[in-house]
């Protein structure tokens, strides 16, 4: 093979190995004049293979172009192998397999490998090369020698390490080894003791599982047991490293650079193992050659147990080692050759139907015939096998929705099929397809075959296609019905003849396209798991998907919290008092928590309760046996710490009454009672915002009953005294424990009650800085955003351009900047600069606040400016994904002090943390804390989504995007609906995600789409069923919010015309009770969040008769403050009667019904947020019209029910019948909707 070089180190100049210290390079022989490798242009196989003569540890590689030419390699892949076959691709830490190469023939490009590889053979595969010339390559490999002790286990053998004593008890263990396995299951290490201790390390479906128990199983069953799995696809017949470190209960478990830290339960700290440890299997005592579990089949090397080299002892036949079965000390290589099908559209392998007669052109096969192979893939769909039969018949074997389907096509309209198998989740599976006379059968994983009759004796054509169909065979009926197969195959046997894939590779046998032979390129894209916040990862061959259902987070990687960060933020959205889930660190690691937001006062109070809210009476306690009460809050201490840090002010009342019960010893001042703060520290002050020592509120107010003491209780009187105090030092709150120790005397008693934690204000919402010199900036520590990053802030300026934010690395960077009417988000992670832009139709330097949010993760990047369409780009699935930054984060300028921003920035949030611009600005020249103007403080001048606009002599509130009106967007916009009243609001344009037009990035990233709604409104009615709101599209999709017959709230979604609608019932009790209710709904993709109380919900599928019946009744009552995304349709109907966007039928009367109901007996349903998952939700919806309507009777008494709700015309007759029978009213007609008209 002219592309394979066997290199005698260091004789050849084109490829050499430098044996030096593992992390040192020396003057490279790569620079010597002359030499270099270049393939023929006609070569189909282009690689440079290096034989290093023995397994060595490779730590770096370097490349150079061919000497004296215009030939070089601009990018390449690196593969390695122990035996020159069964190759594996090297991947960098960010999972990309592409190495940047040279830009000319003379320069040398070095790459220090992030993790070394131990191998004998290397392959350099050019991926890109000189546009001026051709492929040219000189290489050098850096590394050091590597020695190892190897043992080969054949699946029926094991090694036993026997202890010197009967039992070995250890509190510290270290087990290390490397292994490569030929199958997905098998025990590597096992030891157990008679009292129930055990440790087992085993492969299970390609993952490595560690099971350990340190407790007496009889006395404490399962209490000390722990199991953990790590790794994936470990049966790939390549080396993997394992390290287990245990000290007492703490265990570090590492597989291939992935580490899990775990802790065992139970009481025991030691591992007691009797007699022996076994490696490779668990032999059954007294029965040689019999094993309890599947044995390991493969090789282990450098196997150490607590410093003992097990394999070395076995090789030297030491008495501590007993060998069971055939264990050898050289590693046998696998015989199966794999092939990787790379493309979902153009991969195929074409073979003769009878390899034994491959020279006979055009002859078919009759009689018995079979085809078998092993395959593994993540994809749920793909063509596995195609074969033509007589008379244009054909036989297809498909992966269809994760199952195997064998189909016999007799004609275009006549077929028969068999469906077998279960999910194929990346594991190897064996397939056997057989034809025998009139019968075809398929078997999976050696299970009994499933068969079908063919109707005639089968006669195959001359060709069998595996994995896909070439375009040239479309006229023979071979077309990829769904996708070509993407995955790995091996052990292909056609008609009992094994297929030699090396002959296929050399062009001697068959034909192929988009195949890699002698390598299985399957990857686990969910390892490591890039889905954040407990999102569930699933994958295909080329990508992964995060299911964020139930997490409270959204986005491609479940990065973004759907909850507001504080009660103050909820108030700004127009919410009323109630229980809310809030997420104080946004996209940070902490989960959301439920709090009560009291919005009835000027200040918005957040209330966090605990388990000790009732008064507690204490008697009989002393310092030796004190009374102790631990307080458990509805939020974790980490969540509470973040909430307190964000709040302006926090307080907690401790009610304390006493009778002959002192807080302090009056002789020496020793505390007799105290409380613990959130850090577990003892505190002895009982009031105030300063952490004083041994004082109560009466001391601060100077009104204690006896001024000789600092607390009323210390007067030690027989009467009841009061030392209630208000604690307000945030660093110590909340109270986590109360200790009372002086109630053991006659007549002594104390009563205490710890109130909830209460906080108001959000000091980050208006944290701001003003930049008034172009060369000024604020700097912060380096942005920690390797895999995900979100940046959001508000700005206002009169300057046309400037840099908001910049952070640089050696090659990478991130920048957000302003140019005239355009905001740009740019970054570089190694795939070339990516630029997203949003252009505004109005100037952005209008001295008004504008909102910017930029996000980047391993799957996509996005940019949002105000209410303008979201721009976002998908990331390449196999590109670099780690953002490597090392400079400071500059705000309002750059490191070069050029293009600085002039104006104000506030609420700058990075990955859930708000940067304290206000504090940093106080010490920076050219920058001042705060922002001038009326709209730059948290005085809440404009409410309910209202936008504050600066004027020369004051401000005005723009309530355009608010459902409220009035000078401050606080006035309810309410409408009384009578029978026959309806409002229709038609959107000007579909709500769609716009594709970014950046020339630099459009070739790299693809368009995708999002789907979301935010809905809020208040209503009052006594009639049910009732239609509250519908959103319809021209694509027969709809959303409807209705009251059912029993008055319960129902939310209907139909986003997929092929499936039944989803219906959700957040409340079971009737809301048609004449009281005012508030509904908030948020949907993001497949997840819907409903704010409603009580917290009960169910989901299900049904027909839309309920919706039509609610629509036929309409709505009679009061609707108030209706918000849909950034639109206020009800307010638009009142204020813009002549608008072409608003259509009103019937008598629409503006009312103050919402305000009156609020004053009398308002009831907020803004309860705890809960998640409902709809399996049938799609990820795309284009909303075109929103309707709030009641049907209007015509003069002849007939009713017309609009079926814009997605009703197919063919269902009209059925629905007419259903409604007529249900209502006993024949004068109802259902009209089918069409794109050309709206029937209401």
UniProtKB/TrEMBL annotation:
InterPro entries: ConA-like_dom_sf (IPR013320), EGF (IPR000742), FA58C (IPR000421), Fibrinogen-like_C (IPR036056), Fibrinogen_a/b/g_C_dom (IPR002181), Galactose-bd-like_sf (IPR008979), Laminin_G (IPR001791), Neurexin-related_CASP (IPR050372). It is found in: Membrane. Gene3D superfamilies: 2.60.120.1000, 2.60.120.200, Galactose-binding domain-like, Laminin. Pfam families: EGF, F5_F8_type_C, Laminin_G_2. CDD domains: EGF_CA, FA58C, LamG. It is a single-pass type I membrane protein. Disulfide bonds join 904-931. Residues 558-610 form the Fibrinogen C-terminal domain. Residues 522-559, 932-970 form the EGF-like domain. Residues 1-144 form the F5/8 type C domain. Residues 150-331, 338-520, 767-931, 992-1153 form the Laminin G domain. Keywords: Disulfide bond, EGF-like domain, Membrane, Repeat, Signal, Transmembrane, Transmembrane helix. Its main location: membrane. May play a role in the correct development and proper functioning of the peripheral and central nervous system and be involved in cell adhesion and intercellular communication. Belongs to the neurexin family. PANTHER family: CONTACTIN-ASSOCIATED PROTEIN-LIKE 5, PIKACHURIN-LIKE PROTEIN. This is Contactin associated protein family member 5b.
